[in-house]
């Protein structure tokens, strides 16, 4: 509690800066304004050495709220193409080692990172897991954490802009369309699902349990027709402001010089990731008939919550996108300890 009180001025400053960024980006109709605006504003504040911070426990609560909104997008007709999902899920399992190898060679040859650091900077996901395991295996902790933070931020920022540039459609919608007619009974049911779902998700080991648990629990209510009303849009925007502020404020503890130096290499790796993701997504969509935009969002490793929100904004099946990212993260969680053990033994 004392730590929270000490951080309170930084939290308030971060959220106020984030709110200002969201208002500005929303005013100019920027894609996903209420997430990208706070993220950008807090990044600028961090580079200017402002003391901004959003603790993980606050982010966790907001992820549950985002999970509720992702769950509202699940309707029975979203599963119409589920028969071909196994093919794309297998493709994701193959995609992970391919993109890891490509990016690893880039960090080894271009950035000059050591082998262990290159491996754990290259795996597409699991920032905390990869940082811990990479450090234990002898990698550079700061580089690994910074690279993955920059990867998430750059992908979250770049994907909506690329989509807008290619399709001409600006992804600004952040939830299913319709009247906000959620009654008290339905609100209580959603609240209960948001509390119970994450507990079940933690027990069975789902990645990002607070978001995915709430999402699947709420999705069950909507797909069965038990709940039909929609929660207020402003609550989601609050959660997006906190999420964006959290991503941007991560860089407040790193010197601008180090951020700038690593960002140059991270930008190159993100370009490679987008290229490999696009090629894999095109192949999957070509052979399965799945929508290319949906498969692209399913492959681009920008985070489960972030990519799923972009999916909703583009009227793409969020269940399809979220499931593929969960499979990707599961694979990394399973393989990363094995790689870490092997690298540790080899360097030992």
Mind explaining what this structure looks like?
With 348 residues, this protein is an all-alpha fold. It has one domain. It is built from 14 helices and no strands. Helix 1 packs across helix 10, helix 3 runs parallel beside helix 13 and helix 12 runs parallel beside helix 14. The radius of gyration is 20 Å and the shape is globular. The model has no long low-confidence stretch (mean pLDDT 85).
Provide the number of structural domains: 1
**Rg, Å, rounded:** 20 Å
The oligomeric status of these chains comes to single chain
Q: How many separate helices? A: 14
Total E-strand runs? 0
Outline the low-pLDDT stretches: none
Q: Which outline best applies?
A: globular
Largest sheet, if any? none
Topology as H/E string?
Answer: HHHHHHHHHHHHHH
How confident is the prediction overall: mean pLDDT?
Answer: 85
Tell me what portion of residues adopts beta-strand conformation.
Answer: under 5%
Proportion of helical residues: over 70%
Ends distance? 41 Å
Structural class of the secondary structure composition?
mainly alpha
